[in-house]
Amino acid sequence: MGFAKKKVVQWDPVDIKAELLKKYPAKVARKRAKQIMINEAQENSPPPEIVANVRTIPGIITMRGCTYAGCKGVIMGPTSDIVNLVHGPIGCSFYAWLTRRNQTSASGDNNENFITYCMSTDMQDSDIIFGGEKKLAAAIQEAYDLFHPKAIAVFATCPVGLIGDDIHTVARNMKEKLGDCNVFAFSCEGYKGVSQSAGHHIANNQVFTHLVGKSDRPKTDRFKINLLGEYNIGGDGFEIDRILKKCGITNIATFSGNSTYDQFASANQADLSCVMCHRSINYVADMLEVKYGIPWIKVNFIGAQATAKSLRKIAGYFGDPELTARVEEVIAEEMPEVEATRLDVRPRTEGKTAMLFVGGSRAHHYQELFKEMGMKTIAAGYEFAHRDDYEGRRVLPDLKVDADSRNIEEIHVEPDPELYRPRKSAEEMQALTESGYEFKDYEGLNADMDEGTLVIDDLNQYEAEKLVEIYKPDLFCAGIKEKFSIQKLGIPMKQLHSYDSGGPYAGFRGAVNFYREIDRLVNSRVWGLMKAPWQENPELSATYVWE
Amino acid sequence: MLLRHTPKEITERSALTINPAKTCQPIGAMYAALGIHGCLPHSHGSQGCCAYHRSTLTRHYKEPISAATSSFTEGSSVFGGQANLLQAINTIFTVYDPEIIAIHTTCLSETIGDDLPQIIKKSRDEGKTPAGKEVIGAPTPSYVGSHVTGFSNMVKAMADMAEPATRKNGKVNIIPGWVEPCDMEEIKRLAALIGVDITLFPDTSGVLNGPLNGEFSMFPKGGVTIAELKSCSAAIGTLALGEWCSADAARLLDSKHKVPCRVLDIPFGLKATDRFIDALRTVGGTVVPEEVSFERGQLVDLISDMHQYFYHKKVALAGDPDQLIALTEFLVSIDMCPVHIVTGTPGKRFEKRIKELTKDSPYPVNVRAKGDMFLLHQWIKNDPVDLLISNTYGKYIARDEDIPLVRFGFPILDRQGHQYFPTVGYKGGLRLLEKILSALLDRADRDAPEEKFELVY
Q: Is A162 on the interface with B (CB under 8 A)?
C-alpha cells in the first residue's frame, strides 16, 4: 500500500515539536514554538499556554484567509434576502461567490434569494485615483432599482480603506434616499486583523447594531432560542432545525446559516442563545444578554451524543416537563438509526487516527464524531481561533490586546431601555447554576484532547506535511487548499470547512452521513492502488516460467 | 428558479457588475507562475488574496496549489510592504527552497505603491535571495483588466528573464495562453510530431495534472526551466497563442531580443489549429507529417458526421477573449450560430473580432467585452438559445432557462477531467465536438415524447 503502509513510529511529542521547528529561521522557530503545544497536565502549575490569534509570518504557506473572507464570506454570505454588494476590484466578490456551500431555503417574506448573485463595483484604476464613493452610491441605486431588497450590505476591500472611501456615509445617505431599504456597510478590509476572525467580529458587530431588535413582528412561540455560529454548510442548519422543530423548540434566528433579515431583526425576542461556534460569535451572545437579557449556553450539534446532550441542556433551561419529555422522545426516536450505522461502521474505523486542523471550533466539535467511531485524534488545532477557544473562557481576563486586535471595534452595549427583559429571575438563574447548569461556559479544545497529543495553532503546509510523514494518520481534516497535498501522500483528506460535496454532518442524520463518509474515506480501495507491480517488486529475483 | 430576480428587461448599468465573467489579475499570475519548474508563486498582499486564488485553482485543477503570501497587516498597509516581502523571501528560501519565486502584486500593494523591482534588488543585495536562485516580479493590479491580464503580465515577466543571446539555438518559443495542463502537453506533442524543437512557457503539464503515487513534491517535474527561459532570446521565432494572454510576452522578446513573433489564435477547432500548424512548420522550416494531416482528416470527418445536429443551432458563450474568439470561429465553421457572446475582460478588439467572425450569421449577434453573466442571461431571456458554453457559473442560467450546458474555460468547479483531456489541436476538436453533441442529444432524449424517442441517431 505504498506510503499508507503502517510503520509503528514511537515518537516523543517533544522530538516531534523539535522536528517541526528544525528547518525554520531562528526568529520564525521561536515564534512557532509558542504556537505548538504538547497537551499535558503539569503538576503544581497551570496548564500550558498556547499563543493564538497572532500574525502569520510572511512567506509561510498558511491556511488562513483575510478579514473580508470572514465578514462577507462567512458571516454575511449565508443570508438570503440581503443584497451583498462588494466595493472593490472584481476578485474579492468573485471568489466569495457560492464557494462555501452554505445552503438556503430562501425563506424570506418574498422568497428572495440573492445568494446566487455576485455583486461588485468592479473598481477600476480611475476609481482608485479619484475615489469610488460616487460609483458605490450609483451601484447601490442600481441594485435597489433591479432587486428592491429590504437591505443592502456594503463590504470594503483592501484598496477602499487605503484611498479613504467613506462607505458608512455613502450607506447612510443611500438609506435615507431610498427610504424603504436598510443600507449599512462593513469596514472589513482584508489587511485588518490577522485572520478571518477579525472579519467575523466586524460583521457581527454591524449585524447587532443595524439589524437586531429592528423587527416589529412579535414572536409568540413558547420555547424560543437563537442559534449562534451555525452556517448551514452542506445543510447542517436544516438538520438542526428539523430536530428543534420536532422537539417543539422554535429557532428564532440562526447567525447566520439560512438566515433572513427578519430572523436577525427578531433575535432579541428569543429566550435563550445557543452558541455553536464559540470563536465566531461568543461576543454576540454576550451582547444579547447585556442588551436584551437573553442568557446563553454553549451547545454542540456535531455528534449524536453531543446533539442529545445539547437538546437536554436546552430543555433543562426552560424547565418544562412537557418539553423535557418531548426531547427524550425525539432522542429515543432518532438514535436507533444512528446506532445501527455507528455499529455497522465501527469495526472498520475502530482504532484509526485522525488529525484536525480547521476553523475556530470544528477541530474541537468533530472529535465527538470520531470518538463515536472509535477513532483517536492525535493532533489538532485551529486556523483562526483565540486562546479561549483552546484553553477555555477562564483565560479571557488574561488575554492581551495587541495592535492587530485593537483596530477591531469592540462595541459597548447597555441594557435596552425598552427591549431589555430578564428571562429568568436572579433566584431562578442561581438555582439553575447551583444544580450544575452551566451558562456561558466553554472549556476549550485542550481539555478534550488526550495527554501527549499535539495542539498546533495556525498550522501551515510545511508542518502539515511533516506531521503526516511522522505520524501517518489514517485521516487528515482541513480545508480545500490542504486537500491534495495531503492526499498525494496517500492519506485521505476530509474538508471540514465545506465538507467536499457532503453533508449535513450535524444532528442525528448528520452523524449517520459522517460515519458513512469517514468509513468510505479511510477504507477506500484507492489508497491501495498507488504502486504498480513493478514498483512493489522492482527486482527480477524469481525465475519466471510461462505456465 | 435560482436566478429568479433577473429581469428580462435590460437596463444599462454604469456602476454595478452582477455575476462577473472575469476575476482579478493575481490569480492569472499565480497560474502562469506554476508553469515554471521549481517555482513558488508569491502573492504580495493580504492573506486572503493568496487563500482565494489557491482555493479557486485547487477546485479547478484538483491538485495541490502551493503559493505564499506577504500577509499584510494594517501596519504594512500604512508603512509599505517592503519589510514583509523581504522576510517572506527569506522564509521561503529557507523553508521551501524553490528555484525561483515569482511575485505578483495585488490591489493593496499597488495602491500603496510598493516598488517590486527595488525590493527584489534589495533582497539580492542583502543575501536574502541566495546565489543561484531567482526572484521575478509582475505588477498585477486587480483594478486593471482581468485574470487574463494578470496571466499575461506574469508570462511577460517570464520572457523578461531572457538574457542577451549571441547566436540562435534553432528553437521556437510557443506561448500557449491560459489553457489546461493537458492542452500544453498536446501542443508539445504536435510540435514534436512536426519536428520543431520548442520552448513552451508557461508549461503547467506535469505540474497540475500529476500522478497519485504516495509522494508529494511541492515542485513537481514539469514546468519550463529557468535555463530555458533565459535562453528563449536565442529562439528563431515566437508563436504567441492568444492576443490577450500571450502577445505582450512575445512582443517583448521581439523588441528586446529581436526574436520575431507571430500572434495567433489559441488552436481551438479546425481553422485555428490549421493556422497554428502552418505557422509552426513555416517558422521551424519543417514538413508536416502525414500523422498530423490524418488527425485533421479525422476532425473533418467527425464534423461531417455531426453537423446535421449543429446546423443553425443558437449558442450563448461566456468566457475569456482568446478562448471565445477561437471557439466562435469553430462553432461558425460547424454551422452553429453563436448569438450572445460575453467576456468580462475589457478590449474593444474583442467585439470587433467576434463581429467579423459572425458577420454572415442568419441571426443578430450580441457581443460585449466588459460584460457580465447577468447581461448574458438577460440576452438569453430575450432571444433563447439551444446551448450555453461557459464556465461552471453558467449552470445557474442553464438550469433556470432549461438549456444544455457545456463547461469550457475557467473555472470549472463541479466537473472533472478537463485537466486530462485537451481541447486544443485536432484531437481537442474531437473532444469539443463530442461534448457539444452529447449535451444536445442528451437533452433531445430527455425531452422526446415516447413516440419520438429514438434508438438510433
A: yes
Give the closest of B25, B66, B112 to A162, CB-based: B112
- Strands B237-241 and B261-264: what pairing? parallel
B-interface mutation test, from A94, A109, A114, A187, most B Cβ less than 10 A away:
A94
- Domains contained in chain A, CATH given: 1-63+350-392+444-501 (3.40.50.1980), 67-210 (3.40.50.1980), 215-349+407-441 (3.40.50.1980)
User: What is residue A43's predicted lDDT score, i.e. its pLDDT?
Assistant: 72
- Domain limits, chain B: 25-153, 172-291, 306-451
Q: Does domain B25-153 have CATH number 3.10.290.10?
A: no
Instruction: Report pLDDT for A465.
Output: 96
Q: What is the pTM of this model?
A: 0.97
Q: Does B113 touch chain A (CB under 8 A)?
A: no
Q: What is the CATH topology of the domain spanning B172-291?
A: Rossmann fold (3.40.50)
Inter-CA distances, B7 with A145, A251, A536, B374, B376, Å: 11, 34, 61, 9, 12
Reported as type and span, the H/E element at residue B368 is strand B366-368
Between β-strands B134-138 and B100-105, what pairing exists: parallel, antiparallel or unpaired? parallel
A223/A315 Cα distance (integer angstroms): 9
Chain length of chain A: 547
With a cut of 70, say whether residue B100 has pLDDT above it.
Answer: yes
* Region B203-221 average pLDDT: 96
Are residues A75 and A81 in contact, defined by beta-carbon separation less than 8 angstroms? no
The full length of chain B comes to 457
Cα separation, A490 vs B244, in Å, equals 39
Q: Do domains B25-153 and B306-451 have the same CATH topology?
A: yes
Reply yes or no: is the peptide bond before residue A159 cis, omega within 30 of 0.
no
B91 interfacial to chain A (CB closer than 8 Å): yes
Q: List, edge to edge, every strand of the sheet that includes A250-256.
A: A250-256, A224-230, A272-275, A296-298
How far apart are the C-alpha atoms of A5 and A472, rounded to whole Å?
Answer: 9
Which of A237, A261, A235, A231 has its CA nearest to residue A251?
A: A237
Q: Which CATH superfamily is domain B306-451 in?
A: Nitrogenase molybdenum iron protein domain (3.40.50.1980)
State the catalytic residues of A. Answer: 66, 69, 100, 200
